[in-house]
Amino acid sequence: MVWSADKFVYGAAAFARNLGLPPMLIGLTIVAMGSSAPEMFVAATASMEGMTDTAIGNVLGSNIANITLILGITALLGVISVRSQTLMREIPLMLAATAIAGYFLHDGLLTRMEGVMLMGLFFILMGYLIWHGLTNKKLDTLEAEADEEIPTGVPTHKAVLWLVVGIILLPLSADWMVQGAVGIAKAYHLSDLVIGLTIIAIGTSLPELAACVAGVLKKEDDLAIGNIVGSNLFNILAVLALPGLIAPGEVDAAASTRDFYMVMATSSALAILILLSGRARALKPWHGGVLLLTFISYQLVLFLA
């Protein structure tokens, strides 16, 4: 799944560059969505198989893992500085989107209308970010770093080939992951929600881990944070909309309380660390240690509950 998601992004980004699309547009759409492609296909597959709690658990668990596990590991490698003004807008938007999703889940139901509203908000948000990115003439550090990551010199036929390979293998690998999760759940008597929050969430977050570690090692700190914020925004709006659209109905009570509160707490912690840290605006190694301990503690709670 990780490999096919990577090839999908590679092919799509290279094809978009060959078409002459601006790097900021490619980064905000193809690259951001591509990193969440595993969550999207797993959520759709699980929903079609009647495992709504697994789909919702995957979204909530992935957002928690992105901040606590992925950023935790990445921050341990060194200080992650944030200079992008784009991120200063996206982080509050991530908090707002998370709060809206929590409101929809608090009654223990995810309806088809709520799924439509989440998907609608996603398209409105993407439209705003794309419009702002294309109309703002001031070069943002995130745009410069995104430009460096988009493949250059890739023949169009090769880009299309990898795009098609990714599109074919992503749904297949998503189905294999869901079926494997079902087997694990039955063998160890775990709920669909816990499987989505743990094993599947960690598995679908691996592309973000690879992107963040690579970004920090290349000194592209804004891109590393941007991958997480963009992925969480995509997950909480577009991916969470899928179980509502495909298999609306009741939601495990723990998802709308314990697990959503954890998503809101970790998202708020990221905002506080970056937005309220003065001119520094950085995640330090000790922040990474705290985030990683938070992830481990949460996993223990899930398995021991």
TrEMBL record:
Presence of the UniProt keyword Kinase in the record: no
GO MF assignments: calcium channel activity; calcium, potassium:sodium antiporter activity
GO cellular component: plasma membrane
GO BP, sorted A to Z: intracellular calcium ion homeostasis
The Sodium/calcium exchanger membrane region domain, residue ranges: 1-131, 159-303
InterPro entries: K/Na/Ca-exchanger (IPR004481), NaCa_Exmemb (IPR004837), NCX_ion-bd_dom_sf (IPR044880)
Main location, first listed in the record: membrane
Membrane topology, from the record: Multi-pass membrane protein
Keyword Transmembrane belongs to the record: yes
Entry's localization field: Membrane
Segments traversing the membrane: 24-44, 56-80, 86-104, 116-134, 159-178, 190-217, 223-248, 260-280, 286-304
Domain of life: Bacteria
Keywords for the protein's UniProt record, in alphabetical order: Membrane, Transmembrane, Transmembrane helix
Name of the protein this chain belongs to: K+dependent Na+ exchanger related-protein
